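1st attempt posting a full record on here, be nice pls
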Amino acid sequence: MTSKQRATDDVQLMKLKWNLTAKGLRPHGQLRQKLQQKITKLELHLSHFPQDAVFLEVHIEKHPRKSLFGAGLTLRLPSNQLRAEKAAPDPVPAFDQAVKALLRELAVLKSALRRESAWKPELARSLASG
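the predicted structure (as tokens):
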């Protein structure tokens, strides 16, 4: 068993509550499958937050005049609310890009909550002690 497998086995995956709103289109099987994959990925990153205090809203909309789809994600956390919006010619890539943007925002938030900016770099610690 690798360390990565052991780490994912040790962490209890949370069950993320979410809601999908679609305007101007019907969510097809491929889109629903992609939604479930990405929500599972988000659950990995949200394991340290209380399960009952986290909620994801997914909004996918077809532009009325252009052949463009917009995907908006709102993640409600106990301390913050994160939002990501992206647009693409197809709903799956739009959603995919929005999830990537939301994961970047989540990484920044978790870093701020851990107060990583106050940590001394490893090199500075070794120079100070030695």
